[in-house]
Amino acid sequence: MMLIVGISIGSGAYGNNSLVDSVGMLRENELPPLSFCGETVPTQEQQVARRLMKALADHATRNRALYRLRIRAAGFFAAIEPILAHYQIPPDFKYLPLVESALRSRAVSPKGAMGYWQLMPATARELGLTTRVGRDERQDLQKSTNAACRYLRYLHDQLGSWTLVAAAYNMGIGNLLKNIRRQQETDYYYLKLNPETGHYLYRIVAFKELLTNYRAYDHLIDSETIAYLSSPLPGEEVDDPDADLLSETLAEEAVGPAGTTALALPALPDESRRKVDEMQLAKLSALVHNGLRAKLVEAGKVEVGQVWTFTLIRGVELEGIRFEEGDLLYALLEDVDVTNGRMYFRTRKVWSLKNRTLTSLPLIAVDVSTGESGIPLPDLEALKAGWIVTWKAL
């Protein structure tokens, strides 16, 4: 599938043929901070930025085809995400089949790889799949995804890096290890690999960014492509930025008259309790209506040290600093209290889409029912719906 898009950098516009030349003009911070499976993509390196830009250009075109791919991905991701989680495979690997097969079960490579995950016959059989004519389980979404996950888990046990796992999936672990030994280099971004594998991870990351974080590239991708990436999918309602912050009941209680709240408060005499209720409701109302709220873009593992990405759902001024809708928060998961079902996030910097800069501002995620740090662990359905978290400055 050949994809072409107009890319604008600075005040100039470039077609696909002049893309490589235009990438040389990239300014510092032209690209937002990026990661793959929690591993940082070093976009400060010009060669890395160049390859990522080319991958973005290659994917972000044939707008109708990209829109159809979004539709297929919505159903596909819902089916494979639980399988990835079962095998403890990072969710970023759900974008790998977009590169391998464009999510087509009957896709066949010149070398004989087939199916959503493009498994070779011998590899598929080793992973327990049937590959005979008339019954090729590489075309079965659930069975092939389980097999691919077993393979990805094996690769990670051998390599210890998810970035290298992606490279090995493309070129084979034997060939990758030969390159690592010969070059004495273990970082994918600095390894000199064959052209296909050398661009492979960038194509995966580009799909991830276009499908989840396209607004960070509105200065690089033409408006028509942005329109196709932002238009609602069939059956998908237009997002209401206020819908998921609080349940209707709690929202009414938080802004309603004193005495209607169901919040847990210490036992106090009636008059004192009424005053505490009023103070608490006033704080919560200010937090709900004036606080910094951000929707989940990319969930990491529920493990200490993991980075989760959020995007602001509206503009707000906090601590004298103006933040705009679409700005990004890169939050560190500092603690997980499984006993009480709570998690604790902190972020120190906010990525500004408008200024292309990182603004220093220590923030913590807070529970909107109490205003305190530590938020309830979300369930999978909440994450899929676009989990919204409220933040306050330290």
Protein described:
The chain folds into 2 domains: 7-104 and 145-230, no CATH class; 248-393, Lipocalin, CATH 2.40.128. 39% of the residues lie in helices and 19% in strands. It has helices at 19-23, 46-59, 63-86, 96-101, 121-126, 141-159, 162-171, 173-183, 195-212, 223-230, 248-255, 270-290, 380-384, and strands spanning 7-9, 12-14, 34-36, 39-41, 131-132, 135-136, 292-298, 307-312, 316-318, 321-323, 328-337, 342-352, 357-366, 375-376, 388-393. Strands 7-8-11-12-13-15 form a 6-stranded antiparallel β-barrel. It has a two-stranded antiparallel ribbon with strand order 1-2. Strands 3-4 form a two-stranded antiparallel sheet. Helix 2 crosses helix 9, helix 6 packs across helix 7 (162-171) and helix 7 (162-171) packs across helix 8 (173-183). The model is unreliable at 1-28 and 236-289 (pLDDT under 50).
Strand segment tally: 15
Number of domains: 2
Q: State the low-pLDDT regions, or none.
A: 1-28, 236-289
Instruction: Report how far the terminal alpha carbons are from each other.
Output: 49 Å
Mean of residue pLDDT? 76
